[in-house]
Amino acid sequence: MNAIEVHNLRKDFKAYSSRSGLKGAFRDLFTRNYKVVSAVNDISFTVKQGEMVGYIGENGAGKSTSIKMLTGILTPTSGTVTVNGMNPHKEREKFVSSIGVVFGQRSQLWWDIAVQESFQLLKKVYKVPDQQYKEHMDHVIETLEIAPLLDKPVRKLSLGQRMRCELAAALVHNPKLLFLDEPTIGLDVLVKLKIRQFLKEINEKYNTTILLTTHDLTDIEALCERVVMLDEGQIIYDGALQNLKTEWGEQKEIVFQFIDQPAIEGLNTLTAELGAQWHLDEKDMSFSALIEADDNKISELIGLVVSAYKVRDMKIKETTTEEIIRNIYEQGVVDIKPAQRETVKA
């Protein structure tokens, strides 16, 4: 069963421009010049119930606009959206009871009242039975370790404390689907780890579907096996995160530390036929070779270097997800058809 079904979804906005001069300003009072800008351009994808999907892209790629259409905040210009078997724009009251939303920069808690009073208000809004609320929220409060915060006004909470309470508030009605927009922004490492672990638990316990939008790719790597990547309002990749690494992790970095420091020119000459690119990190006096991710070439390079120089230490570094995604955007990837879901085209 699919939690989200999106077909040819599009959202256009009118961008108005002002004429120059006093005469232009006067004309603008009666007629305006504008052009139509597509924030989301005919995207299609599905998310199965219980999936945890990373929804990523640069600023202006169309992530927030599409999320707002999925949650019913914006009405699409064209295309269809079905979330939890409902149209988000036509079945509002029933629909909002089936989703939870956490926006890193916005709060759904009341600023001047105690956290638990906000929870009680949300309980009334969503018409959650007392017994169901107690059983579910006792688990949420214990897991997120927010019991000491329940009697505090939201305005007195730190950012990390508030975000844990925001997450708990989004789960008061135990929704089938959770939209998370930058849920760990500005948080320290320990709080991030706590939130990630909690999200894994609710996904396993309740089969909660999670659509995660973030610029912190460590969140994606920790939680999601699948990513949907947007650029200029279009989907440029939809598939397994591991496949993304396989397809685009084209190079590896081999880092050497030598007993006797060699000349970098000598290293370049030694490995010229392998196409390795060397550079020196003067801070820790290590030499790094960037080479094609080919096992035979890597083995040959290591053999050449070890036979020619005395090596103190060596390590092989994988290309990071952040580097891979940056390379994809820089090289201008085109849209992917559904049948090509597991590959990226340049």
From TrEMBL:
<keyword id="KW-0067">ATP-binding</keyword>
<dbReference type="GO" id="GO:0005524">
    <property type="term" value="F:ATP binding"/>
</dbReference>
<dbReference type="InterPro" id="IPR003439">
    <property type="entry name" value="ABC_transporter-like_ATP-bd"/>
</dbReference>
<dbReference type="InterPro" id="IPR003593">
    <property type="entry name" value="AAA+_ATPase"/>
</dbReference>
<protein>
    <submittedName>
        <fullName>ATP-binding cassette domain-containing protein</fullName>
    </submittedName>
</protein>
<dbReference type="InterPro" id="IPR050763">
    <property type="entry name" value="ABC_transporter_ATP-binding"/>
</dbReference>
<dbReference type="Pfam" id="PF00005">
    <property type="entry name" value="ABC_tran"/>
</dbReference>
<dbReference type="InterPro" id="IPR027417">
    <property type="entry name" value="P-loop_NTPase"/>
</dbReference>
<keyword id="KW-0547">Nucleotide-binding</keyword>
<keyword id="KW-0813">Transport</keyword>
<dbReference type="GO" id="GO:0016887">
    <property type="term" value="F:ATP hydrolysis activity"/>
</dbReference>
<feature type="domain" description="ABC transporter">
    <location>
        <begin position="24"/>
        <end position="257"/>
    </location>
</feature>
